[in-house]
Amino acid sequence: MLKITGISKTFNKGTINEKLALDELSITINDGDFITVIGGNGAGKSTLLNAICGTIAVESGSIELDGKDITHLKEAKRAKYLGRVFQDPMMGTCADMSVEENLALAVRRGKTRSLKWGMPKKDREVYVEELAKLNLGLEERLSNKVGLLSGGQRQAITLLMATLNRPELLLLDEHTAALDPKTAEKVLALTEQIVEGSGITTLMITHNMQDAITYGNRLIMMNAGKVIYDVSGEEKKNLTVKSLLEKFEEIAPSVVASDKMVLSAGTKTEDAQEPQDQETAE
Q1: What is residue 253's DSSP assignment?
Q2: What angle do CA 110, 113, 119 make, to 5 degrees?
C-alpha cells in the first residue's frame, strides 16, 4: 500500500540549527497493516507523516501509495487518498459548524463540489448509523455545534470523518495525547474498532510503549530519522514493556536517558496527558 524509498529531509539547512529529520528512510507498508510508530522527541515520527501527506517536501527519495508515485504531488491532491487525525482535537473539526455539517464536509473530501443546497436524507441516515457505532450519544446531537462537545467527543468525530470514505491510508499523529487517560482509552478502543472493522491501512504514532504493543500488528521504532527496529507477528505479540524498553536501551541508549518522561513504560493510557510530541526539527 505504501512504499517509501530513501527519503531525506533536513530542516534549517546551513544554519547552527540544522537538523536531519529523515535520513534516507525506507519502509514498505502492506495493505491492511496497522502499524504503531514509537520513538523519542526528534526521532522523525511526525516529519514522516508530514512527508507522506505532502505538508513538507522531501529532498530525495520517493513515496508511492498503492502503486502511484505521490512524491511531488501537492498536499491538496493527496488528501483524497489519506485520512489524518492530529494531536489537537480542535484541528480536525470546524467548531462553528454542526456535527452533521462536519461529517458532510468529510464525505465530500476529494469530490467535485456543487451548488446544491440541503442535507440529503440518505446522508443523514448514514451519519446517524455511523455515529451510533461510537456509543457516545452523538447520533442524537447532529445539529449541535462541534465546538460545544468535549475533546474526546471531537476526537471521536474527527476519527469518523477521517475514515468515512475509507482512505487508502490513515495517519494518526498522537491522536490521544491531549486527552485525559479515561477518554484516551475510549478513543483508542474506537480506533481499533474502526481500523480493524474496515481493514484500513494505518500508521499510529504514540509515545506510550504499552499502546504501541497492544494495538496493531506491527511496531516500528524510529530514532534520528531512521527505522531502527521493525517487529511484527508473534514477535510483536510476545513483546512486553520491559523487553521493548530493553530494546530501546540496546539500540538507542541516549534516547532512553533523555526521554524518560516521554517514552512511557507505564500502563495503557497513564501518560495520555504528557507533553505532546513536537519534532525538534520543526
Answers
A1: H
A2: 105
Q: Which residues contact 238 (CB under 8 A, 6 or more apart)?
A: none
* Phi/psi of residue 226, nearest 5 degrees: -130, 160
Beta-bridge partner residues of 28: 3
CA–CA separation, 205 and 87 (whole Å)? 10
In angstroms, the CA 57 to CA 131 distance is 36
What span, in angstroms and rounded, lies between the C-alpha atoms of 35 and 212? 8
Straight-line distance from the first to the last Cα atom of the chain, in angstroms, rounded to the nearest whole number: 27
Starting at the edge strand found earlier in the chain, the sheet holding 226-232 runs: 82-85, 169-173, 202-205, 34-38, 218-223, 226-232
The CATH classification number of 1-81+167-282 equals 3.40.50.300
Q: Do β-strands 2-11 and 60-65 pair in parallel, antiparallel, or remain unpaired?
A: antiparallel
Distance CA 87, CA 64 (A): 25
Q: What is the pLDDT along the chain (282 residues), one digit of tens a residue?
A: 899 999 999 998 888 988 989 999 999 999 999 999 998 888 889 999 999 999 999 999 999 999 899 999 998 888 888 989 988 878 888 888 888 888 888 877 655 555 455 566 777 888 888 888 888 888 888 888 988 888 888 888 898 888 888 889 999 998 888 888 888 888 898 889 888 888 899 999 988 888 899 999 999 999 889 999 999 988 998 988 888 888 877 877 666 555 543 455 544 433 333 333 334 343
Q: What is the rounded CA–CA span in Å between residue 231 and residue 236?
A: 6
Domain(s) of CATH 3.40.50.300: residues in the chain: 1-81+167-282
pTM greater than the 0.85 cutoff:
no
